[in-house]
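Replying to the earlier thread about multi-chain prediction with a worked example.

Input:
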Amino acid sequence: MVAITKLNFSEFFASRRALVEDQLIEYLSNNDPPDLWESMRYSVLSGGKRLRALLCLAAAEAVGGDEARQKAIACACAIEFVHAFSLIHDDLPAMDNDDFRRGRPTNHKVYGEAMAILAGDALFALAMEVLVTHTPQAVEREALLAVTGELVKATGSHGMVGGQVSDMALTGRADMQIDRVDPAVLESMHRRKTGALIKFSLWSGAKLASADANQLSALGRFGEILGLAFQIADDLLDVTGEMETLGKTPGKDEASGKTTWVRVFGVEESRARLRQLHLEGRQALQSASLEQNSLSVLEALLDYAINRSN
Amino acid sequence: MVAITKLNFSEFFASRRALVEDQLIEYLSNNDPPDLWESMRYSVLSGGKRLRALLCLAAAEAVGGDEARQKAIACACAIEFVHAFSLIHDDLPAMDNDDFRRGRPTNHKVYGEAMAILAGDALFALAMEVLVTHTPQAVEREALLAVTGELVKATGSHGMVGGQVSDMALTGRADMQIDRVDPAVLESMHRRKTGALIKFSLWSGAKLASADANQLSALGRFGEILGLAFQIADDLLDVTGEMETLGKTPGKDEASGKTTWVRVFGVEESRARLRQLHLEGRQALQSASLEQNSLSVLEALLDYAINRSN
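Result:
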């Protein structure tokens, strides 16, 4: 596999995505009980962008080169399992009640609500199992425990799950004047719901590659900025995107009364915020003392999060 | 606190239960977001028997004395969080659709389905966070990682979640002749659904207390036997118990078409199996090379699992 220091971006993304995909398939090659695993595979192996896994690998390789890729690949897959678990539960009728995801019926539409709830639970457990038992011995045990602790924090009440609770509280509240939503409340919700896992992706890759304190802090900060930018881009896509490229119904957030960046600030102001985050992200990276090629790969991932069309 | 070697059973159970209860309250003293934590507290702090936590502490103290209690208390609480998470999800309308649990309305009846799903998810995350970040440094890091890996295995597809999937498959299948359910299938379902976490409780306590291989294997085997006995006793209680002591509607399993021990083997044969497991459990304990008082405490826990009235 070509090193991060000697490749162009598309080659990097394609090769690392293939690596992640193969590893995900391997970790999911179980059939006991058969219908549970089928349901788990259905949601994980559905052609996701694997952005979080790529961020984890890119951070690891930026800090520790080729050798670090093997140290971080189990973690990169664990992140994708946690992400899939959160999508399955968020799509449930009791939550966002979504029928489509990435252009396909959502998990509960295919396997029923009970199996969807259990597939989500099992994917969360699998994430932890893969991280703890498949991260190679070359990673210090104390570092692996720190990464494990941060992953569950990014997942639970301090992270994704807490963010979903706040999101629900902000959704469809007819008694709430939309121009009076405190931007800080909106940002805090997004920082948990999507930001925490994206920040973790970068931080964990660096940590598993034995990054120093300065690099950890710079890449963590970069992750926070990228996570927020990713969410604003997502909200913009909901109003400007098309069904075909999105794989889900555009305008869904608006119709369901979701409190999005675009609803609170409008399209122009949201775009301006994205441009500002782009600058801040590049600055955060500069302080991480990485060599030029690694820096460029991470910048390209930031560009992608901001300018993507799906 | 009186040592395990110098107390009577009721004193041991009362003091350790109080210790667990205090620690659970402390770990749950968070309010962000407030409604999520309220919902989590509602299900955990509802007067459960804390059998799993007591098994973990008893195994730890039997192997390592007073000092081992501090090594295992975070794990004991983590097990209770995982247990509460599984009860919340199993009670959901899409699953067993239970309105009452321990004499109180189930989580989703009070907080709604969405919050109940998220409270379960957050409790699973909290379990892992508490185990990984609150287990003292005196525990070897490699042992803590092994315990973490086994807890998620006992929780996911190989354990609780997989068992619930099999349970659902066996439930209410009008096309299935109840006398033709393979006893091995029934036992395998229970081994996952309730057995895996109970076995883990004993094994993890011993592991955190640096048990040798012989003790680990003997206490693991004891845990398997106790877990199975606990489930058969549970099925018997469903047909012989009363609403007041059970805290739930007796006959519920029968009415919902659950495949239970009693339905498959009848009351008498189930009782005979319990007596046999009682003997096997005592034999397994004998091989663990424990001093007499610790042995007696663990035997008393087996007696309790078999002879309890709720």
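Chain A touches chain B through 47 residues (CB under 8 Å).

Feel free to reuse this layout for your own posts.
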